[in-house]
Design goal:
Blueprint (H helix, E strand, L loop, with lengths): L45 H12 L8 H21 L5 H37 L1
Length: 129
C-alpha cells in the first residue's frame, strides 16, 4: 500500500486488558496476579548463576592500536599544556609581586594626573590675569 492515505486514527485509552473491552465494562477491575512465582537472582537456577558468574568474570582482550594510543597521549599532553597556560597555578609570591607592581603603577599614574592638573590650573590662572 505505497499510495494509501490514512483517513482516521483511533486513539485508544491505556488499559491493562487486551482487546476492545473497556474499563466501563468491568466495574470492579482487579490487578492481575502473576501466573507463577516471581524469579529473582536469589531464586534463579544454578545454571543461571554459573552463566552469570562466567559472564561477569570474562573480559574481552583489548587490542589497542599503538598509533591510536600515541595520538590520544599527544592530544592529552597538548590539552593539559593549553590548560596550564590558560589557568596557571597562582604562586603566592608572584601574586604579591604583581599586586605591589600594580600599586606602584597606580601611584605613578595618580602623581602624573596631579602634576597635569596643577599645570593646567596654573596655565588657566596665568591666562586670566
Amino acid at each position: 500500500m505505497p499510495d494509501a492515505n490514512v483517513r482516521t486514527l483511533n486513539v485508544l485509552a491505556p488499559t491493562s486488558k487486551a482487546g476492545p473491552v473497556t474499563a466501563a465494562a468491568d466495574p470492579d477491575p482487579r490487578p492481575t496476579e502473576p501466573a507463577g512465582p516471581v524469579h529473582t537472582r536469589e531464586t534463579a537456577s544454578d545454571g543461571f548463576h554459573q552463566a552469570l558468574t562466567a559472564h561477569q568474570t570474562a573480559r574481552p582482550e583489548r587490542h589497542v592500536d599503538p598509533a591510536i594510543a600515541e595520538a590520544i597521549e599527544s592530544q592529552t599532553r597538548a590539552l593539559r599544556e593549553q590548560s596550564r597556560r590558560a589557568f596557571p597555578d597562582p604562586d603566592p609570591d608572584s601574586t604579591e609581586i604583581t599586586q605591589a607592581k600594580r600599586r606602584r603603577e597606580a601611584a605613578a599614574t595618580h602623581a602624573q594626573a596631579l602634576r597635569r592638573a596643577r599645570t593646567e590650573r596654573a596655565q588657566r590662572a596665568n591666562c586670566s590675569q
